[in-house]
Amino acid sequence: MTAHDHASYGIATWLGALDRALAAGEAAAAAALFPAGGFWRDLLAFTWNIKTFEGPGEIGAMLAATIADARPRGWRLAGPIEAEGDGEAAPIAFETASGIGTGRLVMRGGQVSVLLTALDDLRGHEEPRGARRPAGIVHKADRARRTWSENRAAETARLGHEEQPYVVIIGGGQGGIALGARLRQLGVPAIIIEKNARAGDSWRNRYRSLVLHDPVWYDHMPYLNYPENWPVFTPKDKMGDWLEAYAKIFELNIWTSTSCERAHYDAASGIWTVEVVREGRRHVLRPRQLVFATGAYGPPRTIDWPGAADFAGTLMHSSAYQQGAPFAGKRCVVVGAASSAHDVAVDLWEAGGEVTMVQRTPTTVVRSETLMELGFAIYSEEAVARGITVEKADMISAATPFRMFADQQIALYREIRARDADFYARLAASGFALDFGEDDSGLMMKALRTASGYYIDVGASELIASGQIGVVSGAGVARVEAGGLRLEDGRFVPADVIVACTGYQSMNETVAGIVSRQAADAVGPCWGLGSGVRGDPGPWQGELRNMWKPTAVEALWFHGGNLALSRFYSRFVALQLKARMEGIPTPVYGRPAPLSGA
Amino acid sequence: MTAHDHASYGIATWLGALDRALAAGEAAAAAALFPAGGFWRDLLAFTWNIKTFEGPGEIGAMLAATIADARPRGWRLAGPIEAEGDGEAAPIAFETASGIGTGRLVMRGGQVSVLLTALDDLRGHEEPRGARRPAGIVHKADRARRTWSENRAAETARLGHEEQPYVVIIGGGQGGIALGARLRQLGVPAIIIEKNARAGDSWRNRYRSLVLHDPVWYDHMPYLNYPENWPVFTPKDKMGDWLEAYAKIFELNIWTSTSCERAHYDAASGIWTVEVVREGRRHVLRPRQLVFATGAYGPPRTIDWPGAADFAGTLMHSSAYQQGAPFAGKRCVVVGAASSAHDVAVDLWEAGGEVTMVQRTPTTVVRSETLMELGFAIYSEEAVARGITVEKADMISAATPFRMFADQQIALYREIRARDADFYARLAASGFALDFGEDDSGLMMKALRTASGYYIDVGASELIASGQIGVVSGAGVARVEAGGLRLEDGRFVPADVIVACTGYQSMNETVAGIVSRQAADAVGPCWGLGSGVRGDPGPWQGELRNMWKPTAVEALWFHGGNLALSRFYSRFVALQLKARMEGIPTPVYGRPAPLSGA
After folding, report:
1. What percentage of residues in chain A have a pLDDT greater than 90?
2. In what order do the strands lie in the sheet with B331-335?
3. Which chain A residues are closer than 8 Å to B250 by Cβ?
4. How many other C-beta atoms lie within 10 A of the C-beta of residue A385?
5. Which of B127, B231, B459 lies nearest to residue A139, judging by beta carbons?
6. B148:A245 CB<8 A
7. Phi and psi dihedrals of A106, rounded to 5?
8. How far is the C-alpha of A580 from the C-alpha of A168, rounded, in Å?
9. ipTM of this complex
10. pLDDT single digits (tens) A6-30
């Protein structure tokens, strides 16, 4: 314990002290400004990585390794100091050797709670927006003039043929499209590979009644907010149309009806060989960087239940489910009890199916209204009215390290459970098994740790509570028989239709299918925090595994998540790729041991 | 002269005095608050019309006629008081019998200079945006659920067939699309008729090198601003793509490849019979309201020059001109010297043509950079940085009556001519005839008065000054001969190609072609202020003739203008149509004498 542990600072004083310590190159002195429970979260600015450090020990080690390269300076408050919880916080700005940084400083009781540092722009490669936007025309007659549409047509004809893209992005959902838009702004040539016929089809092709479960204020794409008359919850086809329009507006090079078959990285040349099939024809792309933006998940987790071949009815994974109409009047069994299972159950019920849910393990359920009111305070109409733009909300969110977020969520779920006690009692009385995570931290933490086991209630829970959708809970599937499912505890559930809402594998399994088993294993699982709960084994990572940052395989990246995560982190993936394209040094602190040759 | 003429007010005091006079129903007392040179500009709130009143006499007459119906109340400042020119100004808000109003109060030297009142929302029919936006989903399982895409598909199949739209809009450019978006938000069923194959083609089909001459900050469409990386000057094809995406995003019902052949209004039933040809098939629509949104102009003004049939080369109107490539190496003559003539001349020159401009009358030219810096101060990146959103800028603009605007522009052009004296001297030395309007009020006033005779220089003037584009100035065309043009003063201009950049007729000529000569004559010319200059005969109107407001023909409307005018006035056209659909009383003050039966 140092003398600083007992000092009490105001925000400006503390930032001044940090500035002086860093300017003097004194890593230890800077680290000593943090109490034992203080966090430093860095998004590229110091580490060229996405890392959270806890306490002066980890912080000091990071600074000792990065300070000479980062050369941080010019720390200042970039906006007014605001009350935040029981402390105060302010946006900050600073510079490093390679660029401009922004961040947020949160203090509680005179001690720093969180310092967030994020790289915002690369010096000499600032994004051409606002006052730096392109003119769109040279104000001079020019016999060699090429118009915008001629340039676009030439680019489309050239890229992937005479000229190789620097980046290939596999997946044209919100992740690939958001990243594509960021890269285009930074002048990084990229091609997005989308297996469907149109951008946005990854939403359109899902089940009929799907509507986003998160509210509009949380779902903006980069650069272009939804208009103020956009519905709170976006229907899937409207989402598809938005993404398609967005891709056109931002002039993205999307190769639709194109699948990625194989990819191989040649470490010596630093070039990927990516084999794709575009509208039935084989084609090879040779980018320097390959991004998997195939969603937050990998391939469907299809469970090889014994006896499946004997089933007399229809058996499918939820990823293949589109609508309930063909199953009206039939006995429909949904295996699983998370989001897809609930949505599919309602869709089948609405189509006139007789629906039973087989719940293998307990589920975290939250009423949408409640979550909207208590869980999305900074992403709301009220927040907008208070001047909290989505950019500002994202920085506030980013300044909450995952460890701290879990603690906040435990308090939130205590409040939610008290408020909706009647709702939970009715649901439990129907036989539905509820939980709130191993440490009662609720839905968002489940999403971050395992991306499974939760449902934001938009109507299914009432059908379950009232018995209109049956529930068989507490046992897994032992085998499929001709007329239904036999559970592990011997119960039999008759079925004409079985929809396995059994979730998805990790994204690195997609890598196994396209690159190699060796590469997938070197990378290891994606997503999850190492929280130690079932499905998210330790050790503690502090950040989501492998997402949006360097992996153990050179030039292989993962980008994904819901709209909010795709929006925010696409900026950092794009900056990492741009820096590499421009040859800007990117010394990565805390990089996984690299695999040589994938 | 009343005692009030000598009183000196602060903004808040003055507004309080107005509130008391209006609350007491005292039209004369309210009018007496205005000095002789004071303006009241009203956009629907009092008059259900678009009118500017000058001085206490006109204002008192208007108030005496409208105050009982409007029942204005609750006047308040809606934002901070700001310095404006040599006076001060503030946004205001108020209520009327039918809705919510906003506006702006400008005072100079303790006297009111301008009061702007604008209807903002109809009570009970407020726009569903922000906190009133739709949920997008009912949070309840529902066996009768219709998804968003099913509803959209059903609407598309129904509207114009089983169900008639309340409004038909002729023209799917920025005018029709902006109005369509406003009407959709207000729940007014509308079909937009667009002759081209795709929304946005009205831009795409124009000449190759066309780029918007106004900057991006001035060009936003309603509800959805261009992103901050949008170019300053939008290329025509990018504009077309934006409009097409916009129409999709706002779920507009656009019938493309559809032309409007005839329209007839039955005054007894209040129903239009609109004959259209959609993809080659005849179809009849029966709306209650018909809007001409065919641009700021009517049909091309093709001049029936004698001898045209004998011309050995190619002769076309600028509206048919697409690209210069076929004319490389040829002698190209552009007749006219306004915007289209300059753009076409450059396009031909860039393609390798030998270009001569035949200038019949002098032209107002302003360098784009100069106009951007001096003329678009409130529509700029700097304005955005100062918190002047496009909505706020539009209200500041609207609070400048046209009479006052002309005076401001005279001062502006004095500055512009001094600053760019060298530029103008070089241009004049080439033989090009310059003017700045009869009262030296410059380009914007020409645009408002006659929509002709000006050019924002984006490169052509340098070619003219340097002699690379020839100019023959000061005489009209007498006749066409086999090898070129004979001018009225006897000069001969040899030509292989003649492009007549001779402008367009008034919008009411489009009405003549579709409705009847009688209706077109009853409406009279559209656009122009009655300024008394050539091409804009008096008497003084105070507003643009027939635009965005009731005309002499029942249920026939004009909507058009550049992107900025389409954005701003579409709101008022939509409110007028919505009020009529809902049966809200709309007593029009100062309506043109109606034509019975069109």
Report:
1. 89
2. B314-317, B497-500, B331-335, B354-359, B470-473
3. 227
4. 10
5. B459
6. no
7. -115, 125
8. 14
9. 0.92
10. 456 799 999 999 999 999 999 999 9
